[in-house]
Amino acid sequence: MQRNDLLEWIRRNGSGLVDQFLPPGAQAELDSVIRDHRHEVDVDAFLMFVSIRALLRERGMASCESDCEAGQIMAMLST
Questions:
Q1: What's the pLDDT at 79?
Q2: Given 28, 54, 58, 79, which residue has the most CB atoms within 10 angstroms?
Q3: Which of 63, 64, 19 is nearest to 44 (CA)?
Q4: Pure H helices in the chain
Q5: What is the mean pLDDT of residues 11-35?
Q6: Is 22 exposed, middle or buried (0-12, 13-18, 19+ CB in 10 A)?
Q7: CA 29, CA 42: separation in Å to the nearest integer?
Q8: Given its phi and psi angles, is residue 12 left (phi above 0), alpha (psi -120 to 50 degrees) or beta?
């Protein structure tokens, strides 16, 4: 899936992406970050980021590449 296709899909059905691809440990990781007061966290953005990253990894992208690509997609979604 090309970046533009993925962006369009997320814009149409972002909650469906989170429902389908949210990794099992994401909520625990989020809870830990919030509990430890390490960072200000936009919960919806965090869940979207980890879901996009999981989708990219499922489709064969390496971890470091999926982190970067998911970040770029999140930036494009906010514009």
A1: 77
A2: 54
A3: 19
A4: 3-21, 26-35, 43-58, 63-77
A5: 91
A6: middle
A7: 13
A8: alpha
